[in-house]
Amino acid sequence: MIFPEYRARRLRQNETFRALVRETTISPANLVYPLFVMPGKGIREEVSSMPGVFRISVDQLAKEAKECMGLGVNSVLLFGLPEKKDSKGSGAHAKDGIIQRAIRELKNTAPALTVCTDVCLCEYTSHGHCGIIIDKVVDNDSTLEVLARIALSHAQAGADMVAPSDMMDGRVAEIRGILDENNFHMLPIMSYAVKYASAFYGPFRDAAECAPQHGDRKSYQMDPANVREALREATLDVEEGADILMVKPAMAYLDIISRLRDEFDLPIAAYQVSGEYAMIKAAAANGWLDGEKVMHESLLSIRRAGADIIITYFAKEMARLLNG
Ligand code: PBG
Ligand code: ZN
């Protein structure tokens, strides 16, 4: 393999050779599109820090579902903005809550679409934390029951998969338990197994109005400095019955995706979060980067690191590019 016998450029000569030896691909089927659902009618308002991303009312979901499926993006991840918030986040498991109505609407109008739901409390609590607060701290064990109720209410409304994002200890087991007791043993759990306390969630917190009103999320989300801890978190979730392990954010944590890919045999999902999307969009709007090429390259890097599934606000745009 010494020059000139081996010339690496031989197989880079033209696109046909390059395509023949390409190691990583992206398909619309790998992508999950996040949707923000809000109360009201006929609403479609753009999130200012996320150009091209809209908060929509329930009646707009059928149209959105049709567009996704037309592009080959067959899965969505739902986030809800409730009409009102309280200290216990009771809107999250209300039978007629925003997510429960959104799920029913999608199941009625687009039954073939796979509807995944974010299971958390922060959009529904007045204090904006992902759990129940007792004595000024987010109380782990009392939060578990509420999370389980939320997951069950999503399942009962017709969700195809639940995705707990709260980072409480033991929540996968608790959710698996209540789902099985209620005959939802076939409903998978995509666990936000490795979720860092990241500043890249900024635009999402505007979109979902869920920024913590006091303090931060560092007592439950992971320290960005840690990798061994990610393996422990993932191990626990596997033992508790997770079906898919998620890493979040994606681009600043490609090493974590790669480690999980090597150490575990479950499917890996990565969440390319709001801040990653916003950075690329902002640079493109200024003419500083080619937005389309950087979108493609960033998604490729996440797949190359080992993610099977990518949750991304670029899902429709990337699918359009792939479909030519
Ligand atoms: C709620 C939740 C967050 C995101 C997904 N679910 C925000 C947070 O934890 O503060 C972030 C998604 C994004 O930034 O795109 N627990
Ligand atoms: Zn939360």
UniProtKB/TrEMBL annotation:
Active site: 195, 248
Binding annotation for 5-aminolevulinate 1: 205, 217
E.C. code: 4.2.1.24
GO cellular component: cytosol
Pathway participation: Porphyrin-containing compound metabolism; protoporphyrin-IX biosynthesis; coproporphyrinogen-III from 5-aminolevulinate: step 1/4
Keywords, sorted A to Z: Heme biosynthesis, Lyase, Magnesium, Metal-binding, Porphyrin biosynthesis, Zinc
Catalytic reactions of this protein: 2 5-aminolevulinate = porphobilinogen + 2 H2O + H(+)
Gene Ontology annotations of biological process type: heme biosynthetic process
InterPro entries for this protein: ALAD, ALAD_AS, Aldolase_TIM
Positions contributing to Mg(2+) binding: 233
Binding site for Zn(2+): 120, 122, 130
Superkingdom of the source species: Bacteria
Residues reported in the UniProt entry to bind 5-aminolevulinate 2: 274, 313
Family: Belongs to the ALAD family.
Subunit structure as annotated in this protein's UniProt entry: Homooctamer.
Underlying gene: hemB
UniProt-recorded name of the protein: Delta-aminolevulinic acid dehydratase
One of the record's GO molecular function terms: zinc ion binding
PANTHER family: DELTA-AMINOLEVULINIC ACID DEHYDRATASE
